[in-house]
Amino acid sequence: MDTPQSEHPLVLHQFRHSAFCAKVRLILAFKGLQVSLRDVTPGLGQLELFRLSGQRQVPVLVHGDRVIADSTAIALYLEETWPEPALLPADPLARARVLLLEDWADTALAGGGRLALLQAAAADPLLRTALLPEATPDPLRRLVSALPGSLAIPLGDAVSATFSSGDAHQFLRTLEQLALLVTDRPFLEGSMLTLADLAVAAQLSLLSFPAEAGAPLAGRGVPGIADNPLLEPLFNWRDQILAAVAPA
Q1: Interhelix angle for 110-123 vs 165-182, to 10°?
Q2: What distances in angstroms separate CA 92 from CA 2, 97, 104, 112, 147, one per listed residue?
């Protein structure tokens, strides 16, 4: 029987080191879908993306004449179009819990993780240049590497990237609680891998970079988080989720 995939290719416009793009790639891999990846060039590439989708942010999925922006909208589209293997439970209450956990990952977890990563990148030229999109021109990479951290990060980001000690402590406590939640527990909801697992795993991959991040990021991460022994079970769980989705 023909499938929607056989009729039209899937194209994902992305930044490689965006957690939201990583979430979409994990969903595609879990469902066994082939996709063409298009790395967006900062500046000109984002203008082209705006003409395509009406906004400059990634991820954007193109499937035939459908253009879907936002990782959650893409996830729901893929789940509806390719319902097997399922990422959302059939039970309405379990489904609601999964969607709430996904929303938490995409907002609270993503917000704290972004601030932590920006602070780490401001102090580490290698980290901030490695995080640039693959299509970033070499002169811009050299400029970002040479600038002081406060100038290398866009002004709005630099201002918002200052964690108060209370915020940083609370974020670390949240991660520690999450680590307890997944200790000896393979999935966040029930006995099946769900969208919640992929959303959380994607965000964690910007705090401690997995092997899939490639050189020079693999094994690096946010100091105080990636090397925190209390969080080791959390990143072990993340690695198990990644292996389950795309085994080596």
Answers
A1: 120
A2: 30, 9, 18, 29, 51
Beta strand pairing call for 36-39 and 10-14: parallel
Distance, in Å, from the CA atom of 119 to the CA atom of 116, rounded to the nearest integer, reads 5
| pLDDT tens profile 19-75 | 999 999 999 999 999 999 998 876 666 677 777 777 768 899 999 999 999 999 999
Sorted by sequence, the CB contacts under 8 Å of residue 130 that are 6+ apart come out as 17, 216, 217, 220
For 130-168, write each residue's pLDDT tens digit.
Answer: 777 666 667 766 665 566 555 445 434 443 455 677 888
- Phi/psi region, residue 54 (left: phi>0; alpha: psi -120 to 50; beta: rest), is left
Residue 111: pLDDT above 60? yes
Domains along the sequence of the chain with CATH = 4-81 (3.40.30.10), 92-245 (1.20.1050)
Whether the CB-CB separation of 14 and 46 falls below 8 Å is answered with no
Q: Give per-residue pLDDT as tens, 187-230.
A: 999 999 999 999 999 999 999 999 988 888 898 999 999 999 99
In order of 88, 153, 187, the CA distances from 115 in angstroms are 30, 12, 26
142 φ, ψ (degrees, to nearest 5): -65, -40
